[in-house]
Write a structure and sequence with these properties.
Blueprint: H1 2-13, H2 29-35, E1 44-60, E2 64-71, E3 75-82, H3 83-86, H4 88-97, E4 103-112, E5 118-129, H5 144-149, H6 151-157, H7 159-181, E6 185-186, E7 192-193, E8 205-208, E9 213-217, H8 222-230, E10 235-243, E11 255-264, H9 268-286, E12 290-293, E13 296-299, E14 305-308, H10 309-317, H11 327-336, H12 347-359, E15 367-370, E16 392-397, E17 400-407, H13 412-427, H14 438-445, E18 451-457, H15 458-466, H16 470-473
Parallel strand pairs: 3-5, 6-10, 14-15
Antiparallel strand pairs: 1-2, 1-4, 2-3, 4-5, 7-9, 8-9, 10-11, 11-18, 12-13, 15-16, 16-17, 17-18
Domain Aminoacyl-transfer RNA synthetases class-II family profile: 171-481
EC number: 6.1.1.6
Protein name: Lysine--tRNA ligase
Length: 483
């Protein structure tokens, strides 16, 4: 770094700008690569271009210098500087001033070298931005910690990192296109909320000075979107950041992107079909409906089955499990299968934990797991014939939850009872319990149509299609401070 800093200072003393305002680029590297792909080996043109890029490779001989420039999402092009074409001063300056990682602008003719490499034969060059810190060594694998902590360097040296950025953008476009084509309206709702709700999660707290008011960052998009449906936006969605002040691991981040969509006069079956079409649209945009995962190849063209929680758990443990199964028996099953539970949990919560630990990891093909105990989702509509069960599903693919769907609870009286119970739990010390949201209840009292809703974690969707961890799919994930 001292050597590079000295070069910067020397350039300044010579009247050369190490960080010029502009360099007069005429073509991107991709435009040259695509526009001159037809050139035969050894063929030269008189077409003069000015290209820019980061120096990723450099080799010099006495009268010739070669460099590989990189631009954008990984486009590369060779540049050649010969004594005969650029002159002694320019070649000497290149050799003394240019390091790996520098951005340079090169002007010259487009040719195909005698070795078959498409190149720009330079007639001149300028420094576009002097790099003061060396790039990570290309032939040494960056540790995951270094990759996510210095993502900017990771993006420079690893094509896979750049590919994930493009893949996520492709996923977002495909999701939006599917919903837009179905007549859904994209909206934005507040991140700062007086009352947190819409999920069972621990919120981040903050303070609004203008109102001298404690507030929370939203843990879900749900409540405001449902208010929009009450107001007549019959099909509505949002893709936005949500914040949960909880653990961090390979599938969880405290800040992530969630899609939520709601449709009037829909139910859990109609939104399940919408979810299937969203996944297929993303698969088509990325090129294949067969996805390799650590659990095996998932065929999205296959059956998307429905699986009921209690019968599936009973089959897995070899005995009948129903909503009437005593808590003591469920606790005994947990002990038999080494599943950790809290003895204070109600039976429904124990069933959810048992299913998640025993059944869920073995699910490969897309499966809508439904008929959960009511404890799973306080805002879901309960079955009329058995209020211990809810009209909701989790989409499980390759052992991981990839989305949730509901027949929504729209009865304001029942909703108030549920939120009152949640607020009492919060007052008793449950950090994940929701607060009583009077404005949301007032909206329901104006009359909410029957509706179905979905929630899909966009980052988990990208993880599914790429095999990357959530720290890889998030461009700049949260990490502990450096020592």
């Amino acid at each position: 770094m001292r050597v590079r800093r000295d070069k910067r200072d020397r350039l300044l003393s010579q009247g050369v700008a190490p960080y010029p305002v502009s360099v007069g680029r005429t073509h991107s590297l991709r435009e040259v690569v695509e526009g001159y792909a037809h050139l035969e080996t050894g063929e030269e043109t008189q077409d003069v271009v000015t290209v820019v890029g980061r120096v990723m490779f450099v080799r010099t001989t006495g009268k010739l210098a070669f460099a590989s420039l990189q631009e954008g999402v990984g486009d590369r092009l060779q540049v050649m500087l010969s004594l005969a074409e650029v002159g002694e001063d320019a070649l000497a300056a290149w050799k003394s001033d240019v390091d790996l990682g520098d951005h340079v602008a090169v002007t010259g003719r487009v040719i195909r070298s005698r070795r078959g490499e498409l190149s720009v034969m330079a007639t001149g060059w300028t420094m576009a931005s002097k790099a003061l810190r060396p790039l990570p060594v290309l032939h040494k694998e960056l540790s995951e910690e270094a990759r996510v902590r210095q993502r900017y360097a990771d993006l420079v040296v690893r094509q896979e990192a750049r590919d994930v950025v493009r893949t996520k953008a492709t996923v977002l476009r495909a999701v939006r296109a599917t919903l837009d084509a179905d007549g859904f309206v994209e909206v934005e709702t507040p991140v700062l909320q007086l009352v947190h709700g819409g999920a069972a999660a621990r919120p981040f707290g903050t303070h609004m000075n203008a109102f001298d008011q404690d507030m929370s960052l939203r843990i879900a998009l749900e409540l405001n979107l449902k208010k929009a449906v009450v107001g007549g936006v019959d099909r509505v969605y949002e893709m936005g950041r949500i914040f949960r002040n909880e653990g961090v691991d390979s599938t969880h981040s405290p800040e992530f992107t969630m899609l939520e969509a709601y449709e009037a006069y829909g139910d859990q079956r109609t939104v399940a079909e919408l979810t299937r079409r969203i996944y297929l649209a993303v698969a088509d945009a990325l090129g294949s409906r067969q996805v390799e995962t650590p659990k095996g190849v998932v065929d999205l063209d296959g059956e998307w089955r429905w699986l009921s929680v209690y019968p599936a758990l009973g089959e897995a443990v070899g005995r009948e499990i129903t909503p009437d199964t005593p808590l003591a028996e469920l606790v005994a099953i947990a002990a038999e299968h080494d599943v950790e539970i809290d003895p204070a949990w109600p039976a429904g919560k124990v069933v959810i934990e048992l299913f998640g630990e025993i059944v869920e990891p073995g699910i490969l093909a897309p499966t809508f797991v439904h008929d959960y105990p009511a404890e799973a989702q306080p805002l879901a509509r309960r079955h009329d014939d058995d209020p211990r069960l809810i009209h909701a599903w989790d989409l499980i693919i390759a052992g991981v939850e990839r989305g949730t769907g509901f027949t929504e609870l729209v009865d304001p009286v029942v909703q108030r009872e549920v939120l009152t119970a949640q607020s009492l739990a919060a007052a008793a010390g449950d950090p994940e319990a929701m607060q009583l949201d009077e404005d949301f209840l007032r909206a329901l009292e104006y009359g909410a149509p029957p509706m179905g809703g979905i929630g899909i974690g966009i980052d988990r969707m990208v993880m599914f299609f790429t095999g990357a961890s959530i720290r890889e799919t998030l461009l700049f994930p949260h990490l502990k401070p450096e020592a």
